[in-house]
Amino acid sequence: MQNKNIILGITGGIAAYKSAELTRLLRHADCNVRVIMTQNAQEFITPLTLQTLSGNQVYTKMFAQDLELNIKHIALARSADLVVIAPASANFIAKLAYGLADDLLSTVCLATTAPIAIAPAMNKIMWQNTITQKNIASLQDRGINIWGPAAGDLACNEIGLGRMLEATEIFSLIKNFFTSKILQGVNILITAGPTQEALDPVRFLTNKSSGKMGYAIARAAEQAGANVTLISGPTSLLNPPNVKRIGVISAEEMYSQVIKQIKNTAIFISTAAVADYRPAKTAKQKIKKTGEELTLELQKTPDILAAVARLPKKPFTIGFAAETENVKKNAIKKLQTKNLDMIVANKVGKNLGFESDNNELLILSKNAPEIKLSYAAKTQLAKEFITIVANKIKHKG
User: Fold this and answer.
1) Which residues are identified as catalytic?
2) Residue 85: helix, strand or coil by DSSP?
């Protein structure tokens, strides 16, 4: 990160106090930090504070009396390696989405060719508002990085999604941004979480999958430079930054979305715990208790992994196998019968697999030695796994 030119934009919000710590961290990493503050931002923190921490002049006005300073405004946009808006208010996000340029910060964002990242911060209702979500989706489609928000206590004394990420988290994301991207530009499609197969309007068949492994892999792949699409069953997890997420409920819906999204995919990673069977009929009304027993007729769901592996021009296809016994034997069988390029096996049980934050993995590939990843946090395992996949793809190519 040494000598990287970072423009730090600060908009109006109480989270602006975190920007001071972020500035300090960046300067200690030998970054050249130029701070641009909106008028509302100056109601929460002073330019003098940021000037002291950054060691550079803080820019606050669109038009300065000094001609040389006005020229510097344009130079800011041209010289940046990365533009980070933290905090990014709902108002500024709307400006950015619609290409407005009515102050210095929005003008610089419109004039720069550098990558842009925003760290949203606002009330939870503002974040959930339909127009805010449309604006966020628009920015993601344009390649703007969305970092956060986090859930927790808000300044309005409510609890929910809307907190700006901590300065240390944003600093880590900036650091990762400048690291070597081993999957730069590679299109990856990932499935995660459980599916729900409706019995009636209030009941469904499902499993214990939390989606944590798939979401961790999606984040690790994005940090490695990949273009990641995540097709997820119902979970309570936050969307990984800069990952296109498509929500589904049933196995049929997941199958439909996978087939729709698979074109131009280089790597397909199936971590989802997809139901093997679904009710043959879904009752239109709640099923009433009428006797001691209830018999359900089930039928097979589409085999998503096998369908992808059968494609004429299939991507590098990776399956996951959660087993309660004979882990390696069952995984090898799945690898062979479904014509996979790689399979990742793990035993489910206490503090392992479903619902746990930790896991241990056995990675099996065609004509290659097995790889064991020891018991660790799923976030760490995901990074190691993505490195293995990247090396495999590189070797294959």
Assistant:
1) 156
2) strand
